[in-house]
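Hello again,

I reread your note about wanting to compare the complex against the isolated chains. To keep things tidy I'm splitting this into two emails, and this first one only covers the full assembly. Below are the input lines as submitted, including protein chains and any nucleic acid or small-molecule components. They are followed by the predicted structure of everything together. The single-chain runs will come separately.
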Amino acid sequence: MKKILLVSTLLIILNSALFSQEEKQKPFELNGYLTTMQSAMFDTLSGPVFYENLLNNRLNFKGYINDKITLAVELRNRLFTGDMVRSYYGYSDMIATDEGWVDMSWNIVDEKSFFLNTTIDRAWVDLNLNKFQARIGRQRINWGQTFVWNPNDIFNAYSFFDFDYIERPGSDAVRLQYYPSFSSAIEIAAKIDSEEDITAAGLYRFSKWGYDIQFLAGYSNSSDIVAGTGWSGSIGSISFRGEASWFRPLENFSDTTGTTIITAGIDKVFENNSIVQFQVMYCNNPLKLNNFSSFYSGNLSAKDLAFSEFSAFGQFTWAATPLMNVGVSAMWFPDLKGYFAGPSFDYSLAENVDFSLIWQHFNAEMGGSKTRINIGFLRVKYSF
Amino acid sequence: MKNRLTIIIFFIVSGCCINPLKAQELSATEIIKKTDEKFKGEQSGYSVMAMTIVRPAWQRTVEFKSWAKENDYALTLITAPAREKGQTFLKRKNEMWSWNPSINRLIKLPPSMMSQGWMGSDYTNDDILSESSVVNDYTHTLEGEETIDGNPCYKIKLTAKEDADILWGSQMWWVIKKDFIAIKAELYDEDGYLVRSETASDLKIMDGRLLPSYLEIVPADAEGQKTIVRIIEMKFNIKLEESFFSQQNMKTIR
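Full-complex prediction:
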């Protein structure tokens, strides 16, 4: 009898302890990371080398007002030091340029040998009501389906090479989403940038025949009509993803044929924990490149993704041990007689500390001359 | 992509439960059947777990919350480590998606990924997707009774049937007599060599049921190597509609 009493009392205590634990959801969350990254850039080993160090602190703040309303502010504090700061006039101003409608990038300290920049790249309020979701403010609208080039990502295309900024800049936008079913969505979004150019588009995404399929249409950068489609699915055990977009200037609509970008890729995960990816891209109207910096970071919009009629990409990554990842990727741009190649090595030093060694080698003909650039990066990242 | 371990582990450990049974004289097969049933047949469940991979020089832990309905629907949220926190995985029948909040991107995962083991843990693919049944693919003999951690247990040998296409040649199970919980198992290959030991301990009442909250998987041939699963919270037969397992919920669940 005593035993039964004891057990049932225990049960009650345990149950109430569990319930109270569950009720105790924090009303706000703060997380982020701190990285230090050393880079060295050079043409040939015998030539000059530019060294740079970037100390980067990202803070992600989320507040849960109630079940339906969420607030978020995310920012990055970056301290730049090194040869680029000293020798490249206007570097700090370039870093402080905010492409958004509201300027939320500031150089807190700007000296000859170093500068400290703070940029708010997310600041939104989100309302989630039944099958409806509205988000207003600076946010990332990511419509991509493939991994390297994303012609469907019309609000915010990005450069594959900028591996140290996976979050990407936000857009100052209003985004409305409606979820007709568990795996489909209807979206309408509009953004305005620092030039007061407007991008507004709608997207319908659904799941059919084991594929995610999407269609989009809208108006891009206050100049082009855009229409596109994208998909993700698989052929057997191989993933098959792709995107296609078509841009045509609204002015002189009948005079031009527009820009068509089509990309498709496959990826496969193997039993030994390696991943192989391939992607190809076609563009009827590739961007003419004159210098390396527009190639590397550029003001990338989805329309300006391609520098060559055809481009190809391949990547192999292998989790050699649970702590270690090794990889190599390559890109080929026939029209530039050029290529990119880059090995990478990642190692988990501790539960929340990661070490990376990344190499980027570019070789291409731009503006009639041969350009060759090497950049090596060494990064230590602490996540919290 | 490392995160697929969470799904795999989720499928292994989810739905642990107990049917209250009266002590009675049972055959070895009946004991195994009753023990096996504890891992099956739940309509829906919620669990909070931590999995630690222990190697001689290091260890890493992943923590997650999971919601599941039948075998067809699951939603998993990673809560640690910091680098992967907030990522979610949705499974609906044979389709799977992941959501990464830092890049705001939904990614459809290939079906092959669901069948992958995770190299870091000591589970094998067979554990996860195996259709083999401890009840039907083995013959069972009662080898006696032993006391493990103070619990009187049946000691039962499972011998693989000749025609069964299974990884193990035989298994030895220790099943607590009064609760039908397997708290120790030794898995042998076809030549009779020990490959792996599994232990379950720290029995706790979770959502009204007595369950082991600490599982340890130790490979026989690797010194200082093991995988630990801690069950922090479990709930059974909670009300979860099919519509709960949605892409919209992937982005908001916490």
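For quick reference: The first strand of chain A starts at residue 28 and ends at 42.

B.
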